[in-house]
Give the backbone structure.
Amino acid sequence: MAVERQQTLKELAAANVENQPLCININNNVNFELKSGFIHLLPTFNGLAGEDPHTHLKEFHMVCVGMKLNGVNEEQVKLKAFSFSLKGAAKA
């Protein structure tokens, strides 16, 4: 009789990436500029112990979905803007 192993909480919480692509396809044909006003709206993440990266990503998403440019999709905005949301150790 085989005993079924229970998953740990860490295993249950881990993202399932088995069928996910391991790269990001960037469309370099789209050229657009992020305005400084938009960049100042982005939340910042420093990588400090008390900061929650999930909260940062949620706030980052909310700001980016509000950025509407003709011919530019949400993913392209996020890819261009993300580095501006990182500061300190997180940027390094």
User: Anything to note?
Assistant: The chain has a mean pLDDT of 83. Residues 33-91 form one domain.
